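Final report, Chapter 2: Outcomes

The project's central promise was a pipeline that accepts a single protein chain and returns its three-dimensional structure in a standardized token representation, suitable for archiving and comparison. That pipeline is now operational. To close this chapter, we reproduce one record exactly as it appears in the project archive, with the input sequence first and the structure output second.
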Amino acid sequence: MTVSRPPAPFDESDGSRVPDRADGLGRARRLLLSPREEWRRIARERPDDRSLWLQWVMPLAAIGPLAGLVGGLVFGAPAANLVGIDLGAGFYWRGALAGFLGALLGVVAVATLARLLAARFGATCDGRTGLTLAAYSFTAAWLAGTFALVPTLAPLGLLGLYSIYLLNLGARELTGVSDDRALGYTAALVVGGVIAALLPGWLFA
């Protein structure tokens, strides 16, 4: 059995803020292309919750819903177009709102579960660590939402499943969960996050 690794120590002098727009583009690129190294860099930071929400989570979480809204209003839904049904602008506005709220709820769910389940999986996670893990793990899924701008390309949004891999790596680096328990920890967070993200869609249906 693999022994749990202690989470990397936070170093406020190494970065206590969320990257600005220019730095943020670099962070997103590095999370996609060299995630392990970027998580190690993130583990040395201690951004405040407000900055994470306002400068990272909310802007990126809005990408998919806005792309879907514009794509729907301009091109319509492919299936509805085939049968000549006009879904109306309200349908796309409701979908965008549900998508945005779902993205935010997904972050809350993953962050909360990461903290609540940490001890069960031999990990160490406080509220801020949970939020950091959730916020950056969703990056791939949010960026993949840009494909919704052209509805026929929307299935490529499945590339956002890469976020599950990011979550797994991030959990190991930020919480110190052992390799043999990281998969179960990640699976629990994914299930909780997906359920929370789908709730607004069910309510708006």
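Archive annotation: The CA atoms of residues 171 and 201 lie 28 Å apart.
This record, like all others produced under the grant, will remain available to the consortium after the project formally closes.
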